[in-house]
Amino acid sequence: MIKIAFCDDDMEVLHQMNELIDRYRVERNEDITYAAFQSPFELLTEIEKGIRPDILFLDVVMPGQNGMDVAKEIRQYDTNMKIIFLTSSPEFAVESYSVGAYFYQLKPIWEESFFRLMDAVLAECEKKKKNSLILRSKDGITRIDLQQLEYCEVLGRKLLFHLENGAVLESAGSLDDLAGQLMQYSNFFRPHRSFLVNMEYIQNISSRSIKMVNDAEIPIPHGKCSEIKNTYMEYAFNGEQAVL
């Protein structure tokens, strides 16, 4: 199921978007749910609760808070949401890319162009979902792009997920279960019983530890150094990286 949200202070636009998405999901036979918000405050309140749409259609010019500022707040919680700006002016087009916008859609919105846009963004969402992980944390339900996961460690009965942007997410679970899911991808391996590492973020391997690009140190168990180095070298060669 794909979750979509619309945020626009113009009720006519929200009504049009509702009609367009209804026609789209019937014609394409897609499993889609959607919610409409007339104010940025309502939208951000839901997102802060952990309710995250896969796709957000966001008006740029709204009273109180413009869409660019709203998008910047959203990116503090979710870096994967597909944000599509809606506007009558191309004025903010360049700025939209600073918040990782997927598209900048000029109004009025015609059915043919809307359907093409939906086809493209849904294909991107499906591709992302195959390479992502759903976490239940104290902040709600979060989808992690596996490319952004540097490493995971066990701390007591919790798993700590260290992300590329410096964020650390906490979730209950078993590292054994997580490793079973992620080690099907060639870039993840388990050098230590308490750590699962994304080899894309390894900076250096010494006799005693793995140094990550964020300067974190992953301990190497006694007698495992050669095996770990071989695993990393094999990954580097297969990934066509330069190895000297």
Q: Can you describe this structure?
A:
The protein has two domains: 129 residues, Response regulator (Rossmann fold); 105 residues, OB fold (Dihydrolipoamide Acetyltransferase, E2P). The protein has seven helices and 15 strands. The strands form four sheets. Strands 2-1-3-4-5 form a five-stranded parallel beta sheet. β4, α4 and β5 form a beta-alpha-beta unit. Keywords: Phosphoprotein. InterPro entries: CheY-like_superfamily, LytR-like, LytTR_DNA-bd_dom, Sig_transdc_resp-reg_receiver. It holds the Pfam family LytTR. GO terms for molecular function: DNA binding; phosphorelay response regulator activity.
Main-sheet strand order equals 2-1-3-4-5
Helix/strand order, N-terminal first: EHEHEHEHEHEEEEEHEEEEEH
Amount of helix: 25-40%
The CATH class of the largest domain is: Alpha Beta
Computed over alpha carbons, the radius of gyration is: 21 Å
Distance between the termini: 46 Å
Task: Please state the second-level CATH architecture of the largest domain.
Answer: 3-Layer(aba) Sandwich
